[in-house]
Each structure stands twice: as structure tokens, then as C-alpha cells.
UniProtKB/TrEMBL annotation:
It holds the Pfam family Acyl_transf_3. One of its GO terms (molecular function) is acyltransferase activity, transferring groups other than amino-acyl groups. GO terms for biological process: polysaccharide biosynthetic process. Residues 5-316 form the Acyltransferase domain. Keywords: Acyltransferase, Transferase. One of its GO terms (cellular component) is membrane. It comes from the Bacteria. Signal peptide: none annotated. This is Acyltransferase family protein. Transmembrane segments: none annotated.
């Protein structure tokens, strides 16, 4: 069953990242909406990722066919467009243009292809792909020893806290890697997994399911470094702060569990649209902003033009690249499964 309001939440996450980068690049509002605050949009993406994987798969049987279907679906959703952007960025960089992202040599290209490192917004894709692999272990636990999932998550959170999130990065034969980005993102994926585990079973009293809980989204701008009333270093450490993890988890819980599914501000065609193009919008908005920023326009005009161009490019990417390739991969996998089943079926013997 589709949770429609999550489409809008995914779109909101992409727009948060867009606004932050626009503010940083153009110094709109003196950069008050920048300062790395796009991290909060990426946090929502990781919470959503963990939640949806847990919600969709942990209640199903752990079988080779199920795992194959899972990997095909995840691969088709994320990898093709990412690799296309990576190779296009590498080609353009070799030609002296950073229109997309800066991938200067074959070592950097290999790091991106192996999901070890990512330039600019591409940094978030390697953790996401690595979480796909980690999730299979959680799925295995869910089939026989669900309690181990909680032990693993709590133990990991404690370990990350007491080791101050180890800075694991460097180079191997000139190929850069950065596992620090994976470790700092892991708590958000884990919390999403826990929420997904309980979405079907947690009973929310009717008197608590109120449209007003959508206001929890207003907690996000209150954590922006230039807007936050918080005086601790949590507003600057962001990914390394469990206080931020708590607030983002509260926001996510309120929207997913407490806001009614028919909330008009989340369950609507606009939310559906931006939810569908959110991945393309996330990957391709930076070149659009950079392109528009070269014109000598009023910053508000740049904002409208950047958002319009980013949305148009994202829609074309979704309609012409992302969705067709994902559909082709899924159909090819289904055909392969059908042929394998037919080969395994006993042949009828003639009399």
C-alpha cells in the first residue's frame, strides 16, 4: 500500500537541498538558508530510505528470489542515473568544463563507480548503496531473530558516539575513499528502519492523529545555523549531533505516524510530482543554479529561474532516463526469472 504523503516529504527533502545550495551560491538572504543546512534534506532522504526498505521487505520472507528482486529494484532506482551523471561529469571535466561535477581523473572516476567517494551532492549515493547491502543482514535477522536488529542498531549508535564517528578516509593506489560519510549517515538510516518495523503494528490513538502535526516540519528551519536559537555546537556539527538526530526523528515520526494520510498539504498532485522527480532534482539542481547564477539578474529572479530550470531538467531526466531505464531493468529481471522457472519446471514426457 502506497503511503502517498511520503511523496511530498521526498520532494520537500530535495527542495531543502536546492534552497540551501541556492543560498550558498548566490548569497541570497546573506546566506541565511545555507551554511550546510541542506544536510537536513539529505537526513530526510536517509530516514525515508531506511523506513521504506524496512516497511516493504522486513515483513516478507528472506529467500534468494526475494533478495534478488530487492537488489534489482534498488539498483534500478538509484544506480543508472547516478552512473550517467558520473560519466558525463568525468567527460566534461576532461574537456575543461565543470558543468556537472568535478571528476578530474580515472582514480576519481573509479572511486565514484565503486561507491567509495562522491563529489558535491554525489557524496550521498555511496552511503545509500552501502546501506542496501547492510539491509540484507537486517532482513536475515528479521526472518529468524528480529531482536538482533535492535541490538545491532543500539550497539552501532553507542559505538559511533563513544568513538566520535571515526574519520575513515584516504586513498588506495590513488583511488580516494571516504567511509566517514557512511558512518555519520548510518544513524538516520537505522532510525528509519526502526520506524518501518513498527509502521504496520504501532497503534496510534485517533485523538493523536491530527493535521496540526504537519507543523513539526517547522522544526527543520529552527536548526539552520543562521536561524537556530540553539547555542550548543549541535547546530554546526549537524551529522555528528544526536540532538539533531532526535529532532529529525521527531519530525519524521510526526509526519509519518501522526499526520493523517489524507492531509491536503502532503497528499496532493504537486507532492506526487515533486516526489517522483526528487532524485533527478537532487542530482541535477546544482548545475542549473550555477548556470543561472552567471546572469546579471536580481537574486529573486535567479531563484525562480533556477527552480524552474531545475524542475524542468529533473522532469526530463525522470521521464526520459530514470523511469524508462528502471522499467527496462525490472522487466529484464522478470523475464530472466520466468525463463529460469520454466527451465526448472519438469518436462512433460510423451507416451
Amino acid at each position: 500500500m502506497e503511503i502517498r504523503k511520503l511523496n511530498a516529504l521526498r520532494g520537500i527533502a530535495a527542495i531543502i537541498v536546492f534552497v540551501t545550495h541556492f543560498s550558498d551560491i548566490t548569497h541570497w538572504l546573506d546566506g541565511a538558508l545555507g551554511g550546510g543546512a541542506g544536510a537536513y534534506g539529505v537526513m530526510l532522504f536517509f530516514l525515508l530510505s531506511g523506513f521504506l526498505m524496512s516497511h516493504l521487505y522486513l515483513g516478507t520472507g528472506f529467500t534468494p528470489r526475494g533478495v534478488k528482486h530487492y537488489f534489482v529494484a534498488r539498483f534500478a532506482r538509484v544506480v543508472p542515473l547516478y552512473l550517467l551523471v558520473v560519466f558525463a561529469s568525468f567527460t566534461l571535466t576532461q574537456g575543461g568544463s565543470d558543468l556537472l561535477y568535478h571528476i578530474p581523473d580515472h582514480q576519481a572516476l573509479l572511486a565514484h563507480v565503486l561507491f567509495l567517494h562522491g563529489d558535491s551532492v554525489l557524496w550521498s549515493i555511496p552511503p545509500e548503496v552501502q546501506f542496501y547491502v547492510l539491509f540484507v543482514l537486517l532482513w536475515l535477522f528479521a526472518a529468524t531473530r528480529r531482536g538482533y536488529i535492535y541490538l545491532l542498531i543500539v550497539g552501532s549508535l553507542l559505538l559511533l558516539f563513544f568513538t566520535n564517528f571515526p574519520r575513515i578516509y584516504g586513498e588506495i593506489q590513488g583511488v580516494p575513499y571516504n567511509q566517514f560519510t557512511v558512518l555519520r549517515s548510518l544513524p538516520y538510516f537505522f532510525i528509519g528502519v526502526i520506524f518501518g518495523l513498527h509502521y504496520k503494528t504501532l497503534t496510534i490513538p485517533p485523538y493523536l492523529r491530527k493535521h496540526g502535526f504537519i507543523l513539526a516540519l517547522c522544526l527543520i528551519p529552527l536548526m539552520y545555523p543562521e536561524l537556530s536559537p540553539v547555542t550548543s555546537d549541535a547546530k554546526n556539527r549537524m551529522w555528528l549531533s544526536y540532538e539533531v538526530l532526535l529532532v529529525m526523528s521527531v519530525v519524521f515520526f510526526c509526519v509519518v505516524f501522526l499526520v493523517p494520510d489524507n492531509n491536503i498539504l502532503l497528499a496532493n498532485k504537486v507532492g506526487d510530482f515533486f516526489g517522483k522527480i526528487s532524485y533527478s532534482l537532487y542530482l541535477l539542481h546544482m548545475p542549473a543554479i550555477t548556470f543561472i547564477n552567471q546572469f546579471d539578474w536580481v537574486v529573486e529572479i535567479k531563484l525562480v529561474a533556477s527552480f524552474a530550470l531545475s524542475t524542468a531538467v529533473a522532469f526530463v531526466s525522470f521521464a526520459c532516463i530514470e523511469r524508462p531505464i528502471a522499467g527496462f531493468i525490472r522487466r529484464s529481471a522478470d523475464v530472466g526469472n520466468l525463463k529460469q522457472t520454466e527451465r526448472a519446471r519438469p518436462k512433460a514426457r510423451p507416451f
